[in-house]
């Protein structure tokens, strides 16, 4: 049932993608904001209580409905699982940005590519060159795919089922929503949400990186993971991006992110301590890197589905 739930949800999303501004997401954001306004008094423990409150309100009904569907029959349980996976996946939420940027770069329309990238990442892209646009688009795509697809898969496969998928997506949103906005940065209230998502995402991030390594250049991916993942400020992002870049033979990261420079050593002004040791494998990103990213993500997705199918068959035969 788990394999069929994910398969049907993916097929439905390909045919009818769920908009990022759909009513369900809007209500979750509204509820999270209400909790923040009600609980936030500048103390970490209030952030912890608020996080637990949001999780209980969303996960308990999800679990109760699932148990009811199981009681009603396997078809009802399947339908509920498909609905939850469909709502928590985001494989197509932002793909239009990535696809449009790819088309713009392929046609030489750098102005449109910068505009689309700015809308997607909320960064200032006015002075970005083609290589920089390509790099940031690739990095954003890899992280987004992990958090909207592979992380959801992992927690949906856990014994708590659909409640696990809900937990992961909501935890990811709270880690952003309670830490990234200007009025929330460096506040104690969002500290627990950030720490909680770090541990919730600890195993899924490494499984995603392992999948990238298996379906790409394995040796370079593992080498980059072991030696260069810590050059990103975020450990999780570093693991995914260094491994993904190594798997595709693309050099990701900039000195601003404590990563190796994407420019040649003789053309970049980088502190000597940042250049100690070997350089990460790969070449500077070009528009072709976006096509490589699409291929890597799809191969990793097929690997996950194949392994899930084998697991489902083994359980059924057992």
TrEMBL record:
Membrane topology: Multi-pass membrane protein
Chief localization: membrane
InterPro entries: Cobalamin_biosynth_CobD/CbiB
Keywords: Cell membrane, Cobalamin biosynthesis, Membrane, Transmembrane, Transmembrane helix
UniProt family annotation: Belongs to the CobD/CbiB family.
Protein's job: Converts cobyric acid to cobinamide by the addition of aminopropanol on the F carboxylic group.
Protein name: Cobalamin biosynthesis protein CobD
The keyword Transmembrane helix appears for this protein: yes
Any single Pfam family the record assigns to this protein: CobD_Cbib
Keyword Membrane on entry: yes
Residue intervals passing through the bilayer: 64-89, 149-171, 296-317
Cell location: Cell membrane
Pathway field: Cofactor biosynthesis; adenosylcobalamin biosynthesis
Biological source species: Paraherbaspirillum soli
Gene name as annotated: cobD
